[in-house]
């Protein structure tokens, strides 16, 4: 009886300790919303400040950006599959879906870096105009977040290797990364619509 009470107390303490982790991460995402909101506002002000340089319509390739968008949205779906497998304790399948998600994220970053390098090589870097400065800052900040998400994902894959059961703490880490990854998808949809699409139309 005393042992059961001790176990229950420990379990309650773990829940009490871990539950604020996800809530705290929600608060972090709110601060990230403020950061991206500020960057979008700056881009809105600078979007027509070309300084005699090229416009978005002249620079942006919607086909390539559309492929980037599809890749990132698909990675959100594959991460969802990973979470389903995690809840079902199918850890091998979970890691496989995480690897696929990681590779999709890498593909997205590759295309973004290729776009940046192509623009810079043609003399259209962030120092060319206020429009390009705000563009590189906004899109680059999103790319940096994707990079951090991929590093986080790699760490979780390593930490889960060899395990047959996921602890509550590990599930919280996966849940927080899930929130982060889906948040990046939402931000990118805004980038695609507000930065690329509206600049080309």
UniProtKB/TrEMBL annotation:
Gene Ontology annotations for the cellular component aspect, listed alphabetically: plasma membrane
SUPFAM superfamilies recorded: Cytochrome c oxidase subunit III-like (SSF81452)
Keyword Cell membrane: yes
CDD domains: Ubiquinol_oxidase_III
Keywords: Cell membrane, Electron transport, Membrane, Oxidoreductase, Transmembrane, Transmembrane helix, Transport
TM stretches of this protein: 21-45, 65-86, 93-111, 131-158, 179-198
Key word Ligase present: no
The organism's place on the tree of life at top rank: Bacteria
GO MF term list: cytochrome bo3 ubiquinol oxidase activity; cytochrome-c oxidase activity
Domain Heme-copper oxidase subunit III family profile stretches: 1-200
InterPro entries assigned to the protein according to its UniProt record, in alphabetical order: Cyt_c/ubiquinol_Oxase_su3, Cyt_c_oxidase-like_su3, Cyt_c_oxidase_su3-like_sf, Cyt_c_oxidase_su3_a-hlx, Cyt_c_ubiqinol_oxidase_su3, Ubiquinol_oxase_su3_dom
Biological process, per Gene Ontology: aerobic electron transport chain
Location(s) in or outside the cell: Cell membrane
Membrane topology designation: Multi-pass membrane protein
Functional summary from the UniProt entry: Cytochrome bo(3) ubiquinol terminal oxidase is the component of the aerobic respiratory chain of E.coli that predominates when cells are grown at high aeration. Has proton pump activity across the membrane in addition to electron transfer, pumping 2 protons/electron.
Family indicated by similarity: Belongs to the cytochrome c oxidase subunit 3 family.
NCBIfam families registered for this protein in UniProt: CyoC
Subunit and partners: Heterooctamer of two A chains, two B chains, two C chains and two D chains.
Name this polypeptide is given: Cytochrome bo(3) ubiquinol oxidase subunit 3
Organism: Nguyenibacter vanlangensis
Lineage: Bacteria, Pseudomonadati, Pseudomonadota, Alphaproteobacteria, Acetobacterales
Gene: cyoC
